[in-house]
Specification:
The protein is mainly α and 392 residues long. It is built from 18 helices and no strands. Keywords: DNA-binding, Transcription, Transcription regulation.
Length: 392
């Protein structure tokens, strides 16, 4: 979305579009909390006052940026009536790689907006999902409306996964197109919820430290680290804000503790999947089961593990990035053992798409509330990986 920066003092007719394009790039690269209006003004070589002629403030500019980043996908779907399913998958992959910033903006950074503006951004995303749902329903008369909806959101999540890692577009367009085609063509369950273990309402930890950690993790996931105060955490945990410091030196320490909790859960489940499997396919199924369990039961921890690590001190950030890389590598190597036709990079694209499909689905309220959602989203992810239910 980058465009040439006009010389200072000039007034190009497309200045508003240039401002939005610069905002998209900066919000994606630096994050909403780390970008000021002055930063965006500098990127388009104008005085900050020039931005306010077009946007009242940073939140309004972010909404415009998020909507602009998502618009090419909507336009692609609106023009897709005459395309075959494979052509649609290729076009969606191409437009996503050309506008990779969208996923980070509407999945991660939009949480920092006020509730009404967050809903505005989400409404655009729902509109895109409806377009894709209608197309899937047309191409697949074998699925129900709810199943087409799940496949639509899953495909959008798979596409958005490229927003969070580095890819060479020319190399991965075909890989991403294949991912999309497999997702929209996946078998889905009836989502009845039969055979699933009922969940209770949940209990609150008795110790203050655990309550503080639980509530902080939930707030970081819901609003983003930068928007949460120590007073917010204390209030949610039922104590005074300053009392939080009796248990954790600061907010960053709380984020690190939540991150460590999520990572340890993942690594214990990975160890169990490896230790109890007969082969790589069985281990991969076990890993997928554990990811679905964690994402649906503690989405805040998964969000922390996959979330914005720029708020951490350098040593903690590097440790967290290495843990993310190593965990995905375990999945990738198992997948390559099951699918020896895939090279490491192509396998990793599929793994990251699976992780995002499950995580994003678990954090999409209308999907997560449906009976049988864990089994349904697992079926989609298993099809993408090429593994079936236990025993297959």
């Amino acid at each position: 979305m980058s465009q040439p920066t006009p010389a200072r003092g000039t007034r190009p007719r497309n200045r508003r579009a240039l401002i939005v394009a610069a905002a998209v790039e900066l919000f994606h690269r630096v994050g909403y909390a780390g970008v000021s209006m002055s930063d965006i003004a500098a990127a388009v070589n104008v005085a900050p006052s020039a931005l306010y002629r077009h946007f009242p403030g940073k939140t309004d500019l972010f909404v415009a940026a998020a909507r602009a980043a998502l618009a090419p996908t909507a336009e692609c779907l609106a023009a897709s009536d005459e395309w075959s399913p494979d052509e649609l998958a290729r076009e969606l992959a191409a437009v996503t790689l050309a506008h990779r910033e969208a996923g980070v903006l509407w999945q991660r950074e939009a949480r920092l907006l006020p509730v009404d503006l967050r809903r505005e951004v989400r409404a655009d995303l729902r509109g895109v999902a409806r377009l894709l749902t209608a197309r899937i329903a047309r191409d697949r008369p074998d699925v129900t409306a709810e199943q087409a909806d799940l496949l639509s959101w899953s495909a959008l999540a798979a596409l958005s996964s490229v927003s969070f890692h580095q890819l060479q577009p020319a190399r991965f367009e075909a890989v991403l197109a294949d991912v999309v085609a497999r997702v929209v063509g996946a078998p889905v369950t009836d989502a009845s919820g039969a055979g699933e273990v009922p969940r209770g309402a949940g209990l609150v930890p008795r110790t203050r430290r655990e309550r503080v950690l639980r509530e902080a993790s939930a707030l970081f996931s819901e609003r983003g680290f930068a928007a949460v105060t120590v007073d917010d955490i204390g209030r949610a945990a039922g104590i005074a804000g300053p009392s939080v410091y009796h248990h954790f030196p600061g907010k960053q320490d709380l984020l690190l503790a939540a991150l460590d909790r999520g990572n340890e859960w993942l690594w214990m489940e990975l160890d169990s999947a490896l230790a109890t499997a007969d082969d790589e396919a069985g281990a991969l199924r076990g890993l997928l089961d554990s990811w679905v369990r964690l994402a649906t039961r503690r989405p805040d921890l998964v969000d922390t593990v996959l979330g914005d690590l720029r708020q951490l001190p350098e040593a903690g950030r590097q440790r967290a990035l290495q843990a993310q890389h190593d965990y995905a590598t375990e999945w990738t190597e198992l997948l390559r053992a099951v699918r020896p036709d895939l090279d490491a990079a192509a396998a990793r694209v599929r793994v990251l798409a699976v992780l995002m499909i499950v995580n994003d689905g678990a954090q999409t309220p209308h999907l997560a509330r449906r009976p049988g959602f864990p089994a349904a989203v697992r079926a989609v992810a298993a099809h993408l990986l090429g593994v079936g239910p236990a025993g297959s």
